[in-house]
Amino acid sequence: MKKLTVVLVSLLLVLGAGYLFDTQTVKAQQGAAYSQLARVAGEFDAKNFNSWQAVAFSGFSATGSQTLQIFQGGGVVLQDGTLLYPFNVNAPLLVDAGQVNAEVVTPTAVSGCTTYSQTEPPPCSITATFTNTHGRGAVIKSGTLGLQEAINLAHAIGAGYPSFDRVTINQAPSVTAATGGLTSFQALMTALVPFQGVNIMDKSQGSPQWWNPQGGATTLPAPATLVNATAGFGVNGANFTGGAYTGNSTYITCISYVDVMGQEGPCSATFTVATSGVATTDQIGYTAPAASAGAVGYTIYITLASGNYNVSYKVPLVVQPTVVGVYPAAGTVCTLTAVETITPACAVANTTYGQTGSGAVVSALTLNTSPINPEATVISTTSIYVPQGSGRTTYAYVPGAHFGTSITTPGALAFTIGAAAATLVPDVIGTVNLLPGAMNQVGKTLRVCGEGTSTASAATIVDIQFQWDAIGQNTAGKGVLIGDLTATPAAAIATAGHATFCQDFQTTVASASATGGSINHVNGFGSVGGVSLIAPGALSDSVTPGAIGSLNLAGEARINIIYLHTTATDGAGWILQNLNVSLQ
Length: 584
Known about the structure:
Layout: H1 2-30, E1 39-40, E2 43-45, E3 54-58, E4 64-70, E5 76-77, E6 83-84, E7 93-95, E8 103-105, E9 109-111, E10 125-130, E11 139-142, H2 147-156, E12 165-169, H3 185-190, E13 198-202, E14 209-215, E15 231-233, E16 245-246, E17 253-259, E18 264-267, E19 281-282, E20 284-286, E21 295-302, E22 313-314, E23 318-319, E24 329-330, E25 346-347, E26 360-362, E27 395-400, E28 427-434, E29 445-454, E30 461-470, E31 480-487, E32 497-509, E33 517-530, E34 537-538, E35 540-541, E36 547-551, E37 557-566, E38 574-583
Parallel strand pairs: 2-12, 12-13
Antiparallel strand pairs: 1-2, 3-4, 3-11, 4-10, 5-6, 7-8, 7-11, 9-10, 13-14, 14-27, 15-20, 16-19, 17-18, 17-21, 20-26, 21-22, 21-25, 23-24, 28-37, 29-32, 29-38, 30-31, 30-37, 31-35, 32-33, 33-34, 33-36
């Protein structure tokens, strides 16, 4: 009998082990779908951000703009114990969940919602425009099935630098009319408010589907022309003793908007700072520019004394790092936007992201080793390469074939057409802003691919060039040439021209100084031809082999993509499109 008992126990242990193995196998196959953790290894599981709910402390009997107060303050606890503050002007809420008067609203104002409390009256108040009335005790949940809350937290804890976090969808969400009238998963995804550095991976349908921020067709406008009330000596508290600008000299200044992906628009029109007529050392002050669709920040450009508008130099808003791998610390010029980290920029009022604008005070003179002001459809000269920004007024998450790092704006968007270029006169057909330190690691590779087109070219030789444009390393008016692809078509381009190109750049020396980094140009290829199907010319590398040094890889930087040709003036400018800039 004892022997039989041992056999039965052994059998049960074997069966139990097999059962446990099968259970764990099933769970492993399901992956994170069973996890209750809000974040694992840089991934924010959206379904676990849909588990929270709050209760209204006070309701209202009217519709329109009304204010709800929340019982427990602004904090909620997720299934894994994570304390989350979900209330934000960009995060829709489902109010009276499960009731006939349920509706999704987007807050227009949020106050006192950054603490967790059980006190009454509660500190958290949410204002929104309501179609229905809601009473005390109304249940409030996520209006995006947890997605926007996950995106917001991913951004808030530092997504974008030095790593890129992602929101994951591990269970297929059920999109119904209760989530704001959205009738499809696609509509839910494209309605989300994106952040630079936060991407979405949908793992619920088998093969992962990436969703990356993509800009719309409309480019950022130039800000309103500065006037004495918005910029100058004494503006916004600037004084006449703490700066380096002499009151009896003239300076031209402009500002440019920056979008949520850190891409700049064109600078405002020329404005000469009113002088005091006294040889004092002044500061130049700026009021925050007006809110503009898509803008979350602004950058400042000032000429040297008695300088020309086309060579207004960028004002540094951060401090050059002293250690490789460290993001630049903020300077004292203004309060920087926290919405994006690619281009350090003073904050602009933006209701979508709940941001207020910041004025600025510039005390130090700009230097001619800084980048110059971007402009739209302006031809460069052989010594002044005028950047052409790619900032957009709208962004949305769209499906993609791979993980987008959000360092730049990938996709098939066309840049603004450049002016018709004369022979041997460069034309910057596109400028892309890069994250500080993005290339400051030996072996990092940046791939720049795209296509330039023209409706009326007269080129016999075409160059597509690349400049590394950064503070502290430039020659006055232009960055450092790091790549040059040259082609000679079999015949001159008589009408429409096309130049398809791809160039890799690889870091060979990392450095924290403004001139200590080096990049090598590798794997360049492409072709140039016309619509008449003439035999094209292959683009080949014409830069001396070896790394290009004296580069600032630690601070903010831009890549200027340049069209250059020989033989006569083109009949029309070139358009840069299908640009994709990726970091590997």
